[in-house]
Amino acid sequence: MRAPATLAALFFFATSALAQVDAPIVLGVAAPLSDAQEILGRQLTDGVDAAVAARGSPARLVVADTSCSASGGESAAKSFVEQKVAIVVGFLCTEAIEAALPILKEAGIPTIDVGVRANRLTDDKDRSGNLVYRIAPRSDAEDAAIARYIAARWADQPFGLIDDGSIAARGLVDSVRRRLGDQGLQPQAVDNYRPAEEKQFGLARRLQRTGITRFFIAGDRPDVAIIARDAKETGLDLTILGAEGLFDEASVDAPLPAGIVAIGPKTSFPDLRPQDEAAADAPGQLPPQGYFGPAFAATEIALEAAANREPGQTLETVLGSRTFTTGLGPIRFDAKGDADLDLFRVYEWRGDGFVEETGG
Q: pLDDT tens, 35-44?
């Protein structure tokens, strides 16, 4: 006599599970939306909004200001738990995400990071147990991209490595040198210079004595411009490769000469521009650049993971086992949670701006 009741109970639980899976996803969006970081946070939230619209998703968004601080990250995480979000995308600052992750882990809420590069974020995942996945490039992605360029373009030519003496620049050059060494490539010259000098003729003369013209320089844009200028005056026409520091503000006194190449992450995403051109050009609307692209892709992954989750399956399981289709191409996460997405591109200075090389 109790069989019908048992069947009814099973039916109830089965339909409840299906309803949970089919219900619109509640998506947490963590972004700095105050003070100096607000414009970066708006790039992030615009990317999320565009992805939700592009997918035609009924997702409900819960947006929280992280303030790029530990207290802001903790507050954002608590609000996500209270609002019962299923998954979080965002975070641009290390302090904020490191404060938020333990709280989100306790609630079983995975996070897709779009801006924090610190290697420890995912390297410590086994120890911390944090439910974190990352679209942003790791800190060591930059030296990997630079080494790939040198190995592909300069393997049959003598080249040198130069840094500005800072800890960051020296570390970058050392990492590039190690990666090249693993491929049997060694620089024929290694040098450094004192940054923020009005002239660099001493370095230029040292470079001239090496007989080498191809150099990777880990330094800021004004310094690289002065090095190129002073080398030119000594009769040395350098082929210069730089890193992300070349995308900083230019020096009026010493502009970059045309032809200098820089390796940096993709920051413009016109292909992801909202289809509604009128809305895209509305006053106050930011162009699709900066964190717009990574946030767009992270949101697509979150929506796709929720749509493909089977009854009883966690979003963490889905995130770690699928290849996701995004506007930036297919993306899959490794065991640490790092994406196989390569955002780094080759750019050439054309006199008034950097232009991405086709297929760079």
A: 999 999 999 9
Tokens standing for residue 48? 């999320």
- CATH number of the domain that residue 191 is part of: 3.40.50.2300
For 357, which DSSP code?
P
Choose among 30, 26, 19: nearest CA to 303: 26
Q: Which helix (H) or strand (E) holds 108?
A: none
- Classified as helix, coil or strand, 120 is helix
**What's the rounded Cα separation, in Å, for the pair 338 and 48?**
20
| Cβ count within 10 A of residue 180 | 23
CB-based contact 249:267 (threshold 8 Å): no
Domain that holds residue 196: 141-266+345-356
- Mean pLDDT of all residues in 241-253: 83
pLDDT of residue 23: 78
Bridging pattern class, strands 344-349 and 354-356? antiparallel
Residue 61 shares a structural domain with residue 93? yes
Tell me the two tokens of residue 52: 């939700």
This prediction has a pTM of: 0.89
**Residue-by-residue DSSP string for 284-344:** TPPPSBTTHHHHHHHHHHHHHHHHTPPTT--HHHHHTT-EEP-TT--EEB-TTSBB----E
**Euclidean distance between CA atoms 294 and 100, whole angstroms:** 20
In this prediction, residues 78-103 reach a mean pLDDT of 98
Same structural domain, 43 and 106? yes
Taking CA atoms, 356 is separated from 103, 135, 224, 227, 269, in Å, by 40, 21, 19, 23, 12
β strands within the chain, DSSP E: 26-31, 60-65, 87-90, 111-113, 132-134, 159-163, 189-192, 214-218, 239-242, 261-265, 323-324, 331-332, 344-349, 354-356
17 and 43 in one domain? yes
